[in-house]
Structure to design on (596 residues):
């Protein structure tokens, strides 16, 4: 490498990421989805009339994670596609990519910007859910002290870890959408294909489970290959283990996190490769 | 010394775009060869669809060449390194609307690696130079077209590039904004910068360019200095006070007696844009006041050739 060459710069990458984050938080869609998610999580406390006792807490947690997953997925797909195509369609990418920057800095900068936005979304939603659970659990402890003799039953650390894993899952989804956007010509195509990818990733465990029952070697190989190409999002659904027995296995959580990081790296790399030769 | 390396060197450039899935291709640039020397203001002219913007995008590495070679200061244009010394103002620029003018230029300065210690001063200098100090804290979304062009020029200049590429810098801008842009280009020229400019406004090109090339359907039709291309070397014009008819006749006879011919007697006319500028109050700002900034491009390395014109250059 000559002394004059321009090295890959994490500084520039961070600049692009922070600019993307700024653009995202000023979009109405982000605010709208955030408000909806927060509203939904907050509304869980109105189910107290059922008086489920400890299972009521589980219900609130499941309800909160449901809101997080639903709105988080929608936010991830739309924000990634929108923030990428706003640069292309508004031609700000022309000015930016005419500077001495690498396309990899642009793609990963966009990814990190969206990933930060989703991080804020997850942190606010999980934070509110945990605050609600803490509050409600305190009320239940006062009303039924005998049911809480051993102290609080909710494992808030586990809740936090599951929230982080959901964030990582959204990161994988964002990388997939970015890969689609890197060769797609329109925002709409990217969003629609992104939702298809989300469904496939959630259902691919069915294919994984069924390959042993397929007789044809070719078909079995194809199914097996597809199950590796698309990440298995069911692995991230660990919320069922919260509040059960010994709680969340940290080794399992670590393996799932590593699984997400590997997929983000590989899919992100493919997005860079695809975008490298894209004509702007 | 790199004095012999041209700012832009294009050899046998051809660019095809696939227009259908069956492989039908559109040839946007056809075997183009050009050279732009350092310090020149070079005009790339041609009608819509003639390949000007495609050529510029290939120079900037935004598009790849199908065939041929493009180098910027000796570095192949597909390499990131080739853009280190290039500033680019796109046609009808659109910037991040949610940033202020100052934030926008600061963002691009940081992307281009302007050192932190110099960042504030350079951004202030260049915003001042394009005459946008008063509006620097306003959101870019509120800027007029002329202001967008000027903030676009500021972001193109903020890292003190040697080559500035201006794609239709006066498109959609009123005559005053257009004249301001021309004045800024002339100032860049005095600083020794190389400027590559495309424009449909041929009168403006004529005012600022040293050399021009005309493209049509992607092919180079003609290239040369303005004097070579439009100067009439076998003619001369004398501009005199109004003469009565008898004296004109006497002059004609005098010229004939010496073997010359009086070809035409015409009333000189001012150009319409000059008349327009003389009647518009905002045009009074042209020529060195904050309307178009100071006379010197903020530069961290003002070329020696322009040192005499740059005695007041801000230290970056």
């Amino acid at each position: 490498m000559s002394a004059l060459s321009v090295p890959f710069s994490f500084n520039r990458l961070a600049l692009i990421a922070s600019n993307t984050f700024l653009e995202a938080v000023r979009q109405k869609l982000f605010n709208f989805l955030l408000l909806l998610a927060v509203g939904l999580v907050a509304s869980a406390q109105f189910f107290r009339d059922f008086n489920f006792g400890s299972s009521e807490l589980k219900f609130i947690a499941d309800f909160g994670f449901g809101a997080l997953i639903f709105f988080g997925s929608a936010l991830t797909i739309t924000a990634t596609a929108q923030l990428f195509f706003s640069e292309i369609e508004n031609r700000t990418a022309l000015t930016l990519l005419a500077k001495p920057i690498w396309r990899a800095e642009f793609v990963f900068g966009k990814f990190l910007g969206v990933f930060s936005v989703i991080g804020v979304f997850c942190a606010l939603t999980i934070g509110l859910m945990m605050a609600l659970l803490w509050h409600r659990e305190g009320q239940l402890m006062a009303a039924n002290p005998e049911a809480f003799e051993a102290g609080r039953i909710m494992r808030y650390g586990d809740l936090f870890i599951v929230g982080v894993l959901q964030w990582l899952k959204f990161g994988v989804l964002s990388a997939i959408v970015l890969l689609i956007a890197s060769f797609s010509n329109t925002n709409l195509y990217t969003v629609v294909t992104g939702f298809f990818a989300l469904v496939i990733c959630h259902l691919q465990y069915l294919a994984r489970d069924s390959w042993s029952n397929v007789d044809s070697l070719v078909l079995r190989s194809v199914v097996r290959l597809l199950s590796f190409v698309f990440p298995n999002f069911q692995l991230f659904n660990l919320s069922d283990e919260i509040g059960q027995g010994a709680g969340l296995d940290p080794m399992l959580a670590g393996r799932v996190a590593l699984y997400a990081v590997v997929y983000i790296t590989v899919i992100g790399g493919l997005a860079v490769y695809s975008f490298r030769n894209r004509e702007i | 010394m790199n004095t012999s390396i041209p700012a832009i060197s294009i050899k046998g450039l051809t660019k095809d775009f696939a227009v259908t899935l069956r492989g039908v291709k559109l040839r946007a640039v056809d075997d183009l060869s050009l050279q732009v020397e350092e310090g020149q203001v070079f005009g790339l002219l041609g009608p819509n669809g003639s390949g000007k913007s495609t050529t510029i995008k290939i120079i900037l590495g935004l598009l790849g060449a199908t065939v041929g070679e493009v180098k910027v200061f000796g570095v192949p244009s597909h390499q990131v390194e080739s853009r280190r010394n290039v500033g680019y103002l796109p046609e009808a620029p659109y910037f991040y609307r949610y940033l202020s003018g100052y934030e926008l230029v600061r963002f691009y300065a940081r992307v281009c690696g302007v050192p932190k210690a110099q960042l504030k001063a350079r951004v202030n200098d260049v915003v001042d130079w394009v005459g946008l100090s008063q509006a620097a804290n306003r959101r870019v979304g509120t800027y007029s077209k002329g202001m967008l062009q000027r903030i676009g020029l500021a972001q193109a200049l903020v890292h003190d590039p040697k080559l500035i590429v201006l794609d239709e810098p006066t498109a959609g801008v009123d005559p005053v904004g257009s004249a301001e842009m021309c004045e800024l280009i002339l100032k860049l020229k005095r600083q020794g910068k190389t400027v590559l400019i495309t424009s449909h406004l041929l009168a403006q090109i004529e005012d600022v360019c040293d050399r021009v090339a005309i493209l049509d359907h992607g092919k180079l039709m003609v290239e040369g200095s303005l004097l070579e291309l439009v100067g009439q070397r076998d003619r001369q014009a004398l501009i005199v006070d109004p003469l009565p008819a008898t004296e004109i006749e006497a002059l004609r006879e005098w010229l004939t007696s010496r073997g010359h011919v009086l070809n035409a007697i015409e009333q000189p006319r001012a150009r319409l844009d000059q008349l327009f500028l003389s009647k518009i109050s905002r045009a009074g700002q042209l020529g060195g006041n904050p309307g178009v900034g100071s006379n010197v491009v903020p530069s961290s390395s003002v070329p020696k050739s322009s040192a005499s014109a740059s005695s007041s250059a801000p230290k970056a």
Notes: Chain B is about 30% helix and 20% strand. Residues 287-295, 301-316 of chain B have pLDDT under 50 and may be disordered. Residues 8-226+273-309 of chain B form a domain with the Rossmann fold fold (CATH 3.40.50.300). Residues 214 and 221 of chain B are 6 Å apart (CA to CA).
